[in-house]
Amino acid sequence: MNASALIGKPVTHSAGQYIYNKIFKKNNINSIYLSIDLDMENIPVFIRFARENLLGFNVTAPYKEVILKYLDVIDDTASGIGAVNLVKNCSGKLYGYNADYNGFLFSLKHNKVDPNGKKILILGTGGTARMVYYALKSNYKCTVFNATRNLENKKNKNFFDNLIAYDELMPEYDIIINCTPVGTFPDIKSPIDGSKIMHKSTAIDMIYNPQKTKFLALAENKGCSTVNGVDLFIGQGLETLKKLYNLSIDYQEFKLLFNEKIIK
Questions:
Q1: Which chain regions cross the lipid bilayer (predicted)?
Q2: Residue 225: CA atoms inside 13 Å, Cβ hemisphere, count?
Q3: In what order do the strands lie in the sheet with 175-178?
Q4: In the prediction, which pLDDT does 61 show?
Q5: What's the mean pLDDT in 63-80?
Q6: Which residue from 52, 82, 49 is spatially nearest to 67, judged by alpha carbons?
Q7: Residue from 64, 118, 196, 243 carrying the catalytic annotation
Q8: What is the domain extent for residue 133?
Q9: Mind listing the pLDDT tens digit for each residue in 219-245?
Q10: Are residues 84 and 193 in the same domain?
Q11: DSSP structure string for 158-202
């Protein structure tokens, strides 16, 4: 049997295990997808296990950046972002990719969001924020700012063009993208309050559970169009299946399984 997995801490929020195993069963694929809640100190042991036993694995917080040093090859996009969320095992050699990058671009296109010419604010400077920033700067002509609680972090200063403190934010951005975990179930907070959101702008949240976070609810109250993290999750999931299993799944089929899991 072939196997793949998700590693992170925690991983209980992920819908991947339910969805992928349903897809394997429907398509008569002799495989299983595991969710592994992994402590940092056990990553080297897991890597040895993966080389010998897994087709590949997904990576979620807080290991998207840490995992790079354990890989043999990192593709240009993942290297540019400095974060990996998909690893493919090729005869014991581990290749790193960033399927979130594909998922984010998929989500923008699917929801008809055009960043060209826009002033954009990214909330956060972690692995997801780096991916979003890289995707925007590589594919669109737009001005991007990143809200941070540590303006003096050298790593961030070397990567992002425009860093701004949260307490300096004004409601002046065409698009705001939440790349922090604030608002993830069961948390009901928002990374910013409604006064920072411009009327009739666009708000995007990388979080998919809940599908309407407090941040998106605040944005709706300001007349904004909103996009949650569901299509990003689906987009990166479709990319994972292609990379690891050479399998193409219809968007609606994947979304139906996603909704089954979230509604349960």
A1: none
A2: 9
A3: 163-165, 143-148, 119-123, 175-178, 202-205, 225-227
A4: 85
A5: 96
A6: 82
A7: 64
A8: 102-228
A9: 999 999 999 999 999 999 999 999 999
A10: no
A11: HH-S-EEEGGG--S--SEEEE-SSTT-TT----SS-GGGSPTT-E
The pLDDT, as a whole number, for residue 13 is 75
Going by pLDDT thresholds of 50, 70 and 90, the confidence category of residue 264 is: low
- Percentages helix, strand, coil for the chain (3-state, rounded to 5) are 40, 20, 40
- Tell me how many domains the chain contains: 2
Q: What pLDDT, in 10s, does the model give residues 165-193?
A: 999 999 999 999 999 989 988 888 999 99
Query: Do residues 63 and 38 make contact, with C-beta atoms less than 8 angstroms apart?
Result: yes
Q: How far apart are CA 189 and CA 133, in angstroms?
A: 23
Token pair for 198: 């411009």
- CA distances from residue 169 to 99, 174, 194 in whole angstroms, order as listed: 30, 13, 11
CATH code, domain with 66: 3.40.50.10860
Report the first-to-last Cα separation within the chain, whole angstroms: 28
Q: Show Cβ contacts of residue 233 under 8 Å, excluding neighbours closer than 6 positions.
A: 15, 103, 208, 258
> Does 18 share its domain with 111?
no
The string of pLDDT tens digits covering residues 89-118 is: 999 999 999 999 999 999 999 999 999 999
64 is catalytic: yes
pTM of the model: 0.93
Q: How far is CA 92 from CA 36, 58, 87, in A?
A: 20, 16, 11
Flag whether pLDDT at 263 surpasses 80. Answer: no
Q: Which two tokens stand for residue 154?
A: 């050298």
Q: Supply the CATH number for residue 165's domain.
A: 3.40.50.720
Count of Cβ atoms closer than 10 Å to residue 165 Cβ:
11
